[in-house]
Structure formats: structure tokens, C-alpha cells
Specification:
The protein is mainly α and 214 residues long. 71% of the residues lie in helices and 0% in strands.
């Protein structure tokens, strides 16, 4: 099943309903539940891979590994809220990233300067998740609680995934990875002025696509 179809069907049932049905052993409900976080996880994975690593490690493959592990280990999940689900999935993603990077480093004869610890990955993913929450102000919404902010982050990830790749990339680099325009220019192989204009256009487009959540 493609991601859009799974997302559309998941929208007809809320988190609590899907979680309850999945815990009754319904594999389709479990698939729909986990697939709802695909874009969120992919964006977080992308923030942790520089271009050198992305030549060997695909964010999509990392997310697929994460979702397969989550499906396998779902009986171990004891949470009741979406906040707990997101935290659990982020931890699985961190472990998947760590394993994949270790394999990559071994394949590349292990450059010690590029070793990445589990703690460093955890901190990096947490920073990106926090920066994602900070983007809420860009569309004028003011979630009443951290829980609403987390829900909004998942919705924003889905909207961000719809943008053209170069718009998505500059927003991830600027807003989620907090890079300077000079650093982004080097990463994207553009001049600083072009990057600033690209980012402004990307943010304007992003605001147009986002639907406020009450």
C-alpha cells in the first residue's frame, strides 16, 4: 500500500482507535498506525545524514528499517499516548541510524573522526524534533500544550513532504538543522543570496500548504 492511501485511511480513525485495534492483533491497523509517522521520521532521519552519508544511506531505507523494527517490537510498547508513541519511534530510529552508520564506517575502513555515538545521535534527533516544534510560530498557530505541538509536528512533516525537493531541503537545513545561510550555500552549492531567496520562497510556499489545527 502506498503512503498516501495508508494516510487517508488512517485519518478515518484516530490514534486511540488504531492503537486499541492494533493491540488486538490487527496487522493492518498496526500498519496504518505506524505509517502515519513515515514523513515525520524521514525528515528527522534526513537531518542526521550529511551528503557524504546520504550517498550510502537512504533516509527512506532507514525509516523503512525503523517501521519494520517497530512492527516487530510493537508488543513491547506500553504507551497510551501519541507523545509516547513518537518518543518510542524516535528511539528506534536512533538505533537504526546508529547501526547503519556503524556498517557504513566499517565499509569505509572506519575514519575515527567520523564516528558517531548513540548519545550524539540521540541529541541530534532531539534537537531536530525541538526545532520542528519551533516552526509552529511560522504559520501563526499557538498550540496550547506540548502535546498539541507534537501533533502539529507530525502534520507539518506531512505538509513539508509535499514541497518540491529543493524547498524541502532548504527548510530542513535552515529550520531543523539551524545552519547559517553560508553553511547552506556550501551544502547546496549555491551563492548565499540565492539561498536566502530560495528559503524565503520555500517558507512562503510552506505557509500556503499548511492548514491550521485548532
Amino acid at each position: 500500500m502506498n503512503q498516501e492511501a495508508a494516510s487517508n485511511r488512517g485519518e478515518t480513525r484516530n490514534f486511540d482507535q488504531l492503537l486499541e485495534i492494533a493491540r488486538q492483533g490487527d496487522r493492518q491497523a498496526l500498519g496504518d498506525l505506524l505509517q502515519a509517522y513515515y514523513n515525520y521520521l524521514q525528515i528527522l532521519a534526513t537531518t542526521q545524514l550529511d551528503r557524504r552519508l546520504q550517498r550510502r544511506l537512504s533516509p527512506a531505507d532507514l525509516v523503512q528499517d525503523t517501521l519494520l523494527a517497530a512492527q516487530r517490537d510493537f508488543p513491547d510498547f506500553r504507551g497510551q499516548s501519541e507523545r509516547e508513541m513518537l518518543g518510542w519511534l524516535r528511539q528506534i530510529l536512533i538505533n537504526s541510524l546508529h547501526r547503519a552508520i556503524e556498517v557504513h564506517l566499517k565499509a569505509g575502513k572506519r575514519d575515527l573522526r567520523r564516528e558517531v555515538s548513540l548519545d550524539e545521535l540521540s541529541q541530534g534527533v532531539d534537537r531536530s524534533a525541538a526545532n520542528f516544534g519551533a516552526m509552529l510560530a511560522s504559520d501563526g498557530t499557538s498550540p496550547s500544550s506540548p502535546v498539541r505541538a507534537r501533533e502539529r509536528s507530525v502534520a507539518l512533516a506531512n505538509e513539508l513532504a509535499k514541497l518540491p525537493e529543493h524547498y524541502r531541503e532548504v527548510i530542513i537545513l535552515r529550520n531543523l538543522q539551524a545552519l547559517t545561510f553560508e553553511e547552506i550555500a556550501l551544502r547546496m552549492e549555491r551563492n548565499v543570496g540565492a539561498v536566502r531567496m530560495l528559503w524565503l520562497r520555500a517558507i512562503d510556499k510552506f505557509k500556503e500548504t499548511c492548514v491550521p489545527i485548532d
